[in-house]
Write a structure and sequence with these properties.
The relative contact order is 0.13. The model has no long low-confidence stretch (mean pLDDT 92). The protein is α/β, with parallel strands linked by helices and 357 residues long. The termini are far apart. It is 44% helix and 8% strand. The longest helix is centred in the C-terminal third of the chain and has 18 residues. It contains 16 helices and eight strands. The chain has a four-stranded parallel beta sheet with strand order 2-1-3-4. A four-stranded parallel beta sheet has the order 6-5-7-8. Helix 14 links the parallel strand 7 and strand 8.
Length: 357
């Protein structure tokens, strides 16, 4: 029985590179939460002393168009082959992927090329015709959450704050949400597979918090490209998110931790929408449950400024109650100051209801 257990858990581990990463950005993360990618680069370079290259010639993987049946699979393969050619040109062999959808697309293409070498040859031919470039296969492909997970203990050693309530001393209760394209398409490419994912739980526990299980933990956030891109289908999207909020409500979580830019945005914004529809929040009060990505939470515990460095004012659900629970020192007056200190205007309110009405 013990031998079988070891074999079983070996299937839920993955190799994550130590250093020398070629960064593959996300198109939607830069729009939804624009500071998240910058802080990931800063953590790797400044806090962890790692070599990671951010190539300005890099483009979208076309994943949203591909999953919306607009971009053909042949085009997706050619675009990804170009990314790998940029990586090889700069002398890198390890990919660090920002977006969960991209992560799924890269793994789908690599799996296809492994099983059908003719497809890889065709992608190479298309790349040469279109750009005159050649590409090489990466040696390692990891998502950014894999890398933060790998170095979670080093981040804990450098942490300025812990995920502990400053007044009670109790660990903060945090629920995790794993993006579908991280662990459900190719479970063996994730930490823990689709059912036992440890990639976010490991961060929460390493930084002092309590990971809280809830019945719909592995349910989709509701993004679903065909759900959201087609207006008449958006009720499917919001109903999926609602199912998760109803499930986690009895546990009174202090925050939601995600590893996908789409999940992060929808679980943040849909709370406002549901509050306007139903007249209630699932976190109590007028605010809702703060939603953070793995990069943002790592930045908080390391002491990065929540406004200037992390851009948390971009979230619909206000993060200030969470900052106050942790005891993070911040300047409320800088919340809506831009990079150069210039006032960028502020919304009528943050959270799910206008507290002044």
């Amino acid at each position: 029985m013990e031998a079988k257990t070891k074999i079983r858990w070996s299937e839920h581990n993955k190799e994550i590179a130590d250093d020398h990463f070629f960064y593959l950005r996300s198109c939607i993360r830069q729009n939804f939460n624009p500071a998240a990618e910058k802080i990931f680069l800063s953590i790797l370079q400044k806090n962890l002393g790692k070599d990671i290259y951010d190539d300005p010639r890099h483009t979208t993987c076309t994943g949203i168009g591909y999953h919306a049946d607009i971009v053909p699979f042949e085009t997706l393969q050619t675009v990804i082959a170009r990314q790998f050619s940029l990586m090889a040109e700069k002398g890198y062999k390890n990919c660090a992927v920002s977006c969960i959808t991209s992560f799924g697309c890269y793994n789908e293409v690599l799996s296809t090329w492994k099983q059908f070498p003719d497809e890889m040859a065709k992608a190479g031919e298309n790349l040469r015709k279109a750009t005159g470039r050649e590409f090489e296969m990466p040696e390692n492909l990891s998502h950014s959450c894999d890398i933060i997970y790998k170095f979670r203990k080093e981040i804990a050693r450098q942490a300025r704050y812990r995920l502990v309530h400053r007044e009670t001393g109790e660990p903060l209760k945090i629920v995790d949400h794993i993006g579908c394209h991280y662990a459900k398409i190719f479970p063996e490419k994730s930490v823990g597979g689709s059912e036992y994912s440890r990639v976010l739980t490991g961060m929460i526990e390493a930084w002092g918090g309590e990971s809280v299980d809830y019945p719909e933990r592995r349910h989709c956030c509701g993004f679903g490209f065909r759900h959201y891109l087609i207006k008449n289908n958006r009720s499917y999207s919001i109903s999926n998110s609602r199912k998760k909020f109803v499930s986690m409500e009895p546990y009174r979580p202090d925050a939601i931790l995600t590893n996908c830019p789409g999940c992060n945005m929808f679980m943040d914004r849909w709370q406002y929408t549901l509050a306007q529809i139903e007249g209630k929040t699932y976190g109590g009060g007028t605010n809702g449950i703060p939603v953070l990505s793995h990069e943002e939470l790592a930045g908080l515990v390391l002491g990065y400024d929540p406004w200037k460095d992390l851009g948390l004012q971009m979230h619909q659900v206000d993060v200030e109650p969470l900052l106050q629970k942790i005891g993070i020192v911040y300047d409320p007056g800088q919340k809506f100051a831009g990079v150069n200190g210039k006032y960028i205007n502020e919304p009528l309110f943050t959270g799910c209801f206008n507290p002044h009405n």
